[in-house]
Design brief:
Strand content: under 5%
CATH topology of the largest domain: Four Helix Bundle (Hemerythrin (Met), subunit A)
Number of helices: 10
Structural class: mainly alpha
Distance between the termini: 61 Å
Radius of gyration: 19 Å
Oligomer: single chain
């Protein structure tokens, strides 16, 4: 459980991470300590420790000397590295999840799809983002490897930040249809198909990101005229 101070720091970490994941705190947002103390009803030292943890462990906060803390703005290279790492983890998780299926876990997958469908029906964007990430977390939990679950949770947070910064439209691109196809393959015990579908699913998300590093031609007349 940890000490009361550790639990309080984790509470603050969880609140901030959730707000980043759900795009309530967009990239570049300044995280003013005094305001966080007030809003979160927290101790300043705990807030400072939580920001340090989000910066050093989850890489979703940047701490700039003499300026303070900001929601991170990942570079294109960092974005690509995150997706590459996440694809490797997701492949491992799919295989372990198939091996670890039980009646309870089958029900968890179906329940998760129902929650995503309901969020879509209500057109609740923040809930759609949350439940989309939860789908991947549930898969990791079913896989039964806590280290993989912890690693993926951090990468999901960073992925959401990347999407907020680089996605060309504000729409949620993590498709319920693709999640359904993945669940069908997993419940059917087809590891090869499930892995292929996961790769395609992650590729689809990346296709909507503007990660082209080539310099863009700027029309100075249009820009300055």
């Amino acid at each position: 459980m940890g000490t009361r101070a550790q639990q309080e720091i984790q509470r603050i970490v969880d609140r901030l991470a959730a707000a980043i994941v759900e795009h309530r705190l967009p990239p570049g947002t300044r995280l003013v300590e005094s305001k966080l103390v007030e809003v979160l009803n927290a101790n300043r030292n705990h807030v400072r420790a939580a920001l340090q943890k989000l910066a050093s462990e989850q890489k979703v906060v940047s701490i700039v000397p003499n300026r303070g803390a900001f929601v991170a703005q990942p570079t294109v290279e960092e974005a690509r590295d995150v997706f590459e790492a996440r694809i490797l983890l997701e492949r491992a998780i799919v295989g372990l999840a198939i091996r670890n299926l039980s009646a309870r876990n089958r029900n968890r997958l179906q329940k998760q799809l129902e929650q995503e469908t309901e969020a879509i029906r209500r057109h609740d964007r923040q809930e759609m983002i949350r439940e989309s990430g939860n789908f991947h977390r549930v898969l990791a939990e079913i896989a039964g490897n806590q280290v993989l679950t912890d690693l993926l949770t951090g990468l999901i947070t960073r992925t959401s930040l990347i999407i907020a910064l680089y996605q060309e439209t504000p729409e949620v691109k993590c498709s319920i249809e693709e999640h359904q196809a993945l669940v069908d393959a997993i419940l059917g015990g087809d590891a090869a198909l499930a892995t292929q579908l996961m790769d395609e699913h992650m590729a689809t998300i990346q296709r909507y990101l503007l990660l082209d590093e080539r310099p863009k031609t700027v029309d100075l007349q249009a820009a300055l005229g």
